[in-house]
Write a structure and sequence with these properties.
By secondary structure, the protein is of the alpha+beta class. The protein has two domains: about 325 residues, Outer membrane efflux proteins (OEP) (Up-down Bundle); about 70 residues, no CATH class. The chain is built from nine helices and eight strands. Strands 2-5-7-8 form a four-stranded antiparallel sheet, with no helix packed on it. Helix 4 packs antiparallel against helix 6. The radius of gyration is 41 Å and the shape is elongated. The two termini are about 55 Å apart.
C-alpha cells in the first residue's frame, strides 16, 4: 500500500513539473517573433522616437520664453571723479561720485522668436522624412526577423528528420541483430557477424547522440531568433514541410522593395542635409523682447520699502537681430561640397542595390528549379534504397547474401533519406529567398 502511494505521489510530482510542449507552425513562430524579438521592438521604438525628433526640430520655429532673476551685493561701489561745476558747485573743483547701490535685485521675462531661419525650415522637412525612414526601417526589420525565423524553422525540421532516419535505421538494425543472435545461439551464425552488427548499433547510437545535440542547438537558435525563452519545449507539425512548386511571375519591381525604399529615404535625408548646410549662406532674423523689474538700495531689496531706502522700478526692451553671413573662411562651401559627394555616393549605392535585388531573384528562381529536380531524384532514390534494403534483408535471412551486403544496403538507405531531407531544406530556403525577392515575406504570416 505504501509503495502504491509513493508511486502515485511521484507520478503527480512528475506531471506537475512536466513542461507543456508548444506546437509551432511557421505562422505562429513568425507572429511570436514580431511581438517578442528585441530587434522588432527596437524598430518600433525608433518610430516612436522619430515623433519626438519632429517635436524637437519644431521647437526651433516656436518662441522661447524664460524667466530670470538675480540678486547682487556690491561690497565696494564704483566711484568716479567729476567737475563740480556741472552739478552747481564751484567750477574747477572735483567731486567724487559713487555709482550704484550696495544691493541690486532683478526679476523678469525674456522672449526669443526666430522670424526667418532657413536651417529651421529645412530641419522640419527633414524630421518628417526621418519619421518615414524609421517606418520603412521597421518594415525592413520585420522582414529580416521573418527571414531568420523561417530559415531556422526549416533547419530544425532537417535535424529532426535526420533523427527520424537514424531511429528507423536503429530499429531495423536491432531486428537484424536479434536474428543474428538467434542464429548464433543455434550455431548457424559466426560470432564475427554478431560483433559487426553490435558495432553497427553502437555507431548508430553515437550518431543519434550527435544529431540530438544538433537538434537542440538548432532549436535554441530558432527560439533565440523568436525571442522565446530557451527552456520552452517546441514541436513542429510535419505538414509544414510540404513541397509545392512556386508559380513564377515576371521579375518583381525592385524599386518597391523595402531595402530600395529605405535607401531612397536616406537619399532624401542627405538632400536635406545639403540644404541645411546651404542655409549657412542665408541671413537669419529673430525677435527679442524682455520685461524686468529691478530693486536697488543699501539693504537687501526683498521685502524692503522706499522708507528703507530701497526703490523698485521696471524696464523693458524689444529688438530685432539680423545676421548676414559674409565670409566664413570657405567652411560653408566645403560642407556643401562634402554633402554633395555623399549624395552622389548614395546614388551609386541605389544602382548597386537594384542590381543586387535583381540578382537575388534570379538566383532564387534558379535554386528553386534545381531543388525541385533534386527532390524528385532523391525521393525516387530513397524509395529504391528502401526496396533494396528490404530485399537484401530477406536474402540475408534466407542465407542468400552476406552481412556486408546488408550493412551496405542500410548505409545506402540512410544516406538516401538524408539526401532527400537536405534537398527539401535547400528548396525551402530557396523558397524563402524567392518570396523575399518579391517583397512578400509578410505573406508567410497570412498563410
Amino acid at each position: 500500500m505504501k509503495r502504491l502511494i509513493l508511486i502515485t505521489f511521484l507520478t503527480f510530482a512528475y506531471m506537475a513539473n512536466a513542461q507543456e510542449v508548444k506546437t509551432l507552425t511557421l505562422k505562429d513562430a513568425i507572429s511570436y517573433a514580431l511581438e517578442n524579438k528585441a530587434d522588432a521592438k527596437k524598430a518600433k521604438l525608433k518610430v516612436e522616437n522619430s515623433e519626438y525628433q519632429i517635436q524637437e526640430v519644431r521647437a526651433g520655429a516656436l518662441p522661447k520664453i524664460s524667466a530670470n532673476g538675480s540678486l547682487t551685493y556690491n561690497p565696494i561701489l564704483q566711484t568716479t571723479f567729476l567737475d563740480a561745476g556741472s552739478f552747481g558747485g564751484e567750477p574747477g573743483t572735483t567731486i567724487q561720485a559713487t555709482f550704484g547701490q550696495k544691493w541690486i535685485s532683478t526679476a523678469g521675462l525674456s522672449l526669443t522668436q526666430n522670424l526667418y531661419d532657413q536651417s529651421v525650415f529645412v530641419g522640419l522637412k527633414a524630421a518628417k522624412t526621418t519619421r518615414e525612414f524609421y517606418q520603412i526601417n521597421e518594415q525592413l526589420t520585420e522582414e529580416q526577423v521573418i527571414e531568420r525565423v523561417a530559415n531556422n524553422y526549416y533547419a530544425v525540421y532537417v535535424q529532426r528528420q535526420n533523427l527520424i532516419v537514424l531511429d528507423s535505421t536503429y530499429n531495423n538494425t536491432t531486428k537484424v541483430k536479434n536474428i543474428i543472435k538467434g542464429q548464433y545461439d543455434n550455431g548457424l551464425a559466426k560470432k564475427i557477424d554478431l560483433d559487426r552488427i553490435l558495432v553497427k548499433i553502437s555507431n548508430i547510437n553515437t550518431q543519434r547522440q550527435q544529431v540530438l545535440n544538433a537538434v537542440q542547438l538548432q532549436e535554441n537558435a530558432l527560439k533565440f531568433y523568436m525571442g522565446m525563452p530557451i527552456a520552452t519545449l517546441i514541436e513542429i507539425p510535419q505538414a509544414e514541410f510540404e513541397v509545392t512548386p512556386q508559380a513564377f511571375a515576371e521579375a518583381p519591381n525592385t524599386e518597391t522593395r523595402t531595402e530600395y525604399l529605405l535607401m531612397k529615404k536616406q537619399e532624401q535625408l542627405l538632400e536635406f542635409q545639403k540644404q541645411s548646410v546651404m542655409a549657412g549662406y542665408y541671413p537669419s532674423l529673430s525677435l527679442t523682447a524682455g520685461y524686468n523689474y529691478i530693486g536697488q538700495g543699501p539693504k537687501m531689496p526683498w521685502g524692503a520699502k522706499p522708507s528703507d531706502g530701497v526703490y523698485w522700478s521696471d524696464f523693458s526692451s524689444v529688438g530685432l537681430n539680423l545676421k548676414v553671413p559674409i565670409f566664413s573662411g570657405f567652411e560653408t562651401r566645403s560642407k556643401v561640397r562634402k554633402a554633395d559627394v555623399e549624395l552622389r555616393s548614395i546614388k551609386e549605392d541605389l544602382v548597386d542595390t537594384k542590381l543586387s535585388l535583381d540578382l537575388a531573384f534570379a538566383n532564387a528562381k534558379t535554386q528553386i528549379d534545381n531543388s525541385m529536380i533534386t527532390i524528385t531524384n532523391q525521393k525516387s532514390n530513397a524509395q529504391l534504397a528502401q526496396e533494396v534494403l528490404s530485399n537484401t534483408k530477406n536474402n540475408y535471412i534466407q542465407g542468400l547474401t552476406s552481412l556486408t551486403d546488408l550493412l551496405d544496403a542500410e548505409n545506402a538507405f540512410t544516406e538516401a533519406q538524408n539526401n532527400y531531407t537536405a534537398a527539401v531544406l535547400d528548396y525551402k530556403l530557396a523558397e524563402i529567398q524567392l518570396i523575399k525577392s518579391k517583397g512578400e515575406l509578410k505573406t508567410l504570416i497570412n498563410n
